[in-house]
Amino acid sequence: MSAATKTIAGTYHHAEHLEFPYVLPHRSVNDVAATSVVLIHGAFASHHEYSGVIESKILSKYHLILPDLHSDGLDISKGIDPFEISRVASLVSHLIRQRAKGGKAHLVGVSLGAHVVVATAAHAPDVIHGHSIFISGYNRFQPPPPVKLVAPYIFYGMSKLEDVLFKSNRTKSGETNDGSQAPSGICTMKLVREIGGAVFGHSNSGERLIGPTGIEARTCVVVATHFLSGDRIIHAQRLLEKMRGAEGEDRVHVLVQNKSMKHPWHVFEPELFATAVQAWIEGRGLREGFVPC
User: Fold this and answer.
1) How many Cα neighbours within 13 Å face the side chain of 94?
2) Quick one: 22-292 is in which CATH superfamily?
């Protein structure tokens, strides 16, 4: 049996694992809803980055599942180790089969979470059958070899700086505004290098798992093209080509950009993010500001 902790919104389920595949530690919100949506966080983060999305209540009619890939928010020793994209996809799909309504769910992911969504959809198409994909910030950087060598150290330093800033925003009790304990010290050089394999390389990439027939799920890929974002349209275009498959069929795969948004817009503009996710899931158009690219 897994331990569970009540939070202001939903329940936090601790890891049930000793043996692979195990049920990932995750936060569950609105368990009584009929349809599940899985929201996957970015690199060196946790489910807490979707706190604003949850608090907006825009997705309140859905059962929300928010896995922690690097830690369970309480114990950093419970992250996925090693962090291989195929292993992550196996665990996310196992979580959906065990916890989502009918063993299926809509998939939402930003940044590294977008890579995980792609890998999961390619690895286990059954868990998204009849459901949709919404991703943003999908980048596949291919820097020159000298830059690639120092990139892990840059990412490590940036993560530590973010951790310091995050700590400064905690309450005196060490809790976040959702009432649960915030993770700390998730980033390690080992994890940085493993995640780098998913973002830089091909052997640890979700794209590698996409077969010749592509991915059938209705998919929206968003590129945040604010000049401070860093997102690249070309990376999303190449992804969509693979998702459409060898025959190039249009299975309602949409690529849009928004020039006013920065890379982590789910954190900076959670209501806009939740509204866009809801619109896509429900088959409606995205709000003004999202344009085809």
Assistant:
1) 17
2) Alpha/Beta hydrolase fold, catalytic domain (3.40.50.1820)
